Automatic annotation (TrEMBL):
Organism: Halomonas kalidii
Enzyme Commission number(s) from the entry: 1.1.1.18
Highest taxon of the lineage: Bacteria
PANTHER family from the UniProt entry: INOSITOL 2-DEHYDROGENASE, PTHR43593
Identification of the protein by name: Inositol 2-dehydrogenase
The keyword Oxidoreductase appears for this protein: yes
Binding partners and assembly: Homotetramer.
Ranges of residues in domain GFO/IDH/MocA-like oxidoreductase: 133-249
Domain annotation Gfo/Idh/MocA-like oxidoreductase N-terminal: ranges: 3-125
The family this protein is said to belong to: Belongs to the Gfo/Idh/MocA family.
Keyword Iron belongs to the record: no
Length: 338
């Protein structure tokens, strides 16, 4: 069986996902694409030799008869409309993060999905599929270092991730990956947050505060510190250390050959999320394709997207109030606990 997919948004990550589905993974074919930049959509069809129709709008992709499932990789502010339209069409939809740019938008998606009566939405939180995060989770589940007490995390990009990266996107668009993967890792939820604005780097847009330090507290009382530094210059660097009662556990570093040369010992650091999470994206999409063909939805849900958006909103509030702000979530609906 082959899952026939429509892709909306053929920019950086849309192209990456189209290539992996077409050339690496099994069980799916891209049959329809759209981008507001039509030439870009046409170029990807030509360059990847796709047998796919270029549609004039995202909604036409969703409604196309040959499209059985949808991938949304357009800019964040467009996601809500396309996810709601996919639910209305009864089609499974994989949406890159963020699910919507406001918590209210995510809540509407949650309500529409519950109303539709079956799980259709998966959010692109690929770190849950990353081998190194899965290894770290196994160490915690085996109780090797006792109960987790403190997490020290780092999310650094060499430069701002996109040309439209502005305002509080470090909190609402970039650290969303930590917000998702850490509650998954700990099987916990957040209760409060404080955001610290350290001395600002000179090597970024004048408007942008960079770096930030985000301090989260969980229901179990675990203290999490996330340094977000999106213009660190030297590379793409993701770190996570868990301090437990009887030891510590670190997220494994991506493998790199240690080189001894010219009186130096060195090893490489990656420079993009594309390479750091290349295997995670492959696993994420193969699992999504397989589950969708079985009529299931097993990955990060619309509820997970909503929780992350509520956390992002609380971060923004805490940044400007300078205070510790509560993170208040309604009870998770039964629909998402089964
Ligand atoms: P991009 O700017 O390279 O691509 C976005 C594409 O969407 C552009 O080609 C744009 O023309 C198109 N687009 C915008 N509005 C549209 C609309 N209404 N209809 C159709 N197409 C539209 O951005 P990039 O880096 O590919 O990011 C896309 C999404 O992927 C974002 O939501 C971003 O947050 C997410 N992303 C996720 C990553 C991850 O690690 N999971 C990494 C990078 C991006
Ligand atoms: P991008 O700017 O390269 O691509 C976005 C594309 O969407 C552009 O080609 C744009 O023309 C198109 N687009 C915008 N509005 C559209 C619309 N209404 N209809 C159709 N197309 C539209 O951005 P990107 O880096 O590819 O990011 C896209 C999404 O992927 C974002 O949501 C981003 O957050 C997410 N992303 C996730 C990860 C990750 O690690 N999971 C990494 C990068 C990006
Ligand atoms: C980008 O959009 C991503 O999703 C990357 O994974 C992340 O590391 C980066 O900071 C985001 O902005």
């Amino acid at each position: 069986m082959t899952l026939k997919i429509g892709v909306i948004g053929t920019g950086a990550i849309g192209k990456e996902h189209i290539r992996r589905i077409t050339h690496k993974l099994k069980g799916a074919q891209v049959v329809a694409v759209n981008d507001v930049n039509t030439e870009q959509a046409q170029a990807v069809v030509r360059d990847e030799a796709l047998q796919a129709e270029v549609y004039a709008s995202g909604v036409e992709v969703i409604q196309a008869a040959e499209v059985e499932a949808v991938i949304v990789t357009s800019w964040g502010p467009t996601h809500e409309e396309f996810v709601l339209a996919s639910i209305a069409a009864g089609k499974p939809v994989f949406c890159e993060k963020p699910l919507a740019v406001t918590a209210e938008g995510c809540r509407q998606i949650v309500e529409a999905e519950i109303e539709a009566g079956r799980k259709l939405v998966q959010v692109g939180f690929m770190r849950r599929f990353d081998h190194s995060y899965r290894q770290l989770k196994r160490v915690l589940e085996a109780d090797t270092i006792g109960a987790p007490l403190i997490l020290n995390c780092v999310h650094r990009n060499p430069q701002s991730p996109s040309s439209d990266f502005s305002g509080d996107m470090a909190l609402t668009d970039s650290c969303v990956h930590e917000f998702d993967v850490l509650r998954w890792l700990l099987d916990d939820d957040y209760v409060s947050v404080q955001v610290i604005q350290p001395r600002k780097t000179r090597l970024c847009d004048d408007e942008l505060q960079d770096p930030h330090v985000i301090l989260l507290r969980t229901r179990q009382g675990i203290h999490i510190s996330i340094e977000s530094f999106v213009n660190c210059q030297y590379g793409y660097d993701i770190q996570c250390q868990v301090v437990g009662e009887t030891g510590t556990a670190n997220l494994p570093e991506p493998p790199s050959v240690p080189v001894r040369h010219a009186a130096k010992l060195s090893s490489g650091i990656l420079d993009s999320w594309k390479d750091r999470f290349i295997d995670a994206f492959d696993v994420e999409f193969q699992e999504w394709i397989d589950a969708t063909l079985r009529g299931e939805m097993t990955g990060p849900s619309a509820w997970d997207g909503y929780v992350v958006a509520v956390t992002g909103d609380a971060c923004v509030k805490a940044k400007y109030s300078g205070r510790i702000e509560p993170i208040e979530l309604p009870e998770c609906p039964d629909f998402y606990t089964n």
